[in-house]
Design goal:
The protein has 9 helices and no strands. The protein is mainly α.
């Protein structure tokens, strides 16, 4: 758990504040850097209510790891899904991993593959390793379904954000 907690904190701190983050996201990031997760959550919740993908991904990571809240992978999945549908590569990869492991949602290798492919198309390096692992173990028919869905997800949740 200690390594996972460190990775989550590193991932959240690595989000450099930009104008798009606004003051609330910058305050949440500072609170995370201090390890004051409950304060960070207080800053993230209003942003999540407004549909901010970065806040959804960050709050999902806190719920997934149980930082400042009891671990709640089902809630993390819901937050990751909302951010993933807005083109967040990190959320796409996190959601793929939840589908892969069946944490908080029913395990589904087809959805894991599709979200991992979207994450890889968004430049998330871990996406390709999930794809490779699944491709080695999936039956051919299931793999074809996963690849077709992945193509659709890249169109919907990656390419549409690049052109718009």
């Amino acid at each position: 758990m200690r390594i996972r907690k460190s990775l989550v904190v590193f991932g959240l701190v690595a989000l450099a504040p930009t104008a798009a983050f606004g003051a609330g996201m910058a305050q949440a990031q500072k609170a995370i850097e201090r390890g004051d997760y409950s304060v960070a959550i207080g800053h993230l919740r209003p942003l999540v209510a407004r549909g901010d993908a970065r806040a959804e991904e960050a709050l999902g990571a806190l719920y997934d790891a149980g930082l400042g809240v009891a671990p709640d992978p089902a809630r993390a999945a819901k937050l990751f899904r909302a951010a993933a549908r807005q083109g967040s590569g990190a959320a796409q990869l996190n959601l793929a991993n939840l589908y892969l492991k069946g944490r908080g949602i029913q395990a589904d290798p087809v959805l894991a593959y599709a979200w991992a492919d979207a994450a890889a198309a968004n430049g998330e390096p871990g996406g390709q390793s999930v794809i490779d692992r699944l491709a080695k173990t999936m039956p051919r028919k299931q793999l074809k379904r996963a690849q077709a869905l992945a193509q659709r997800y890249v169109e919907l949740y990656v390419e549409s954000f690049r052109s718009g």
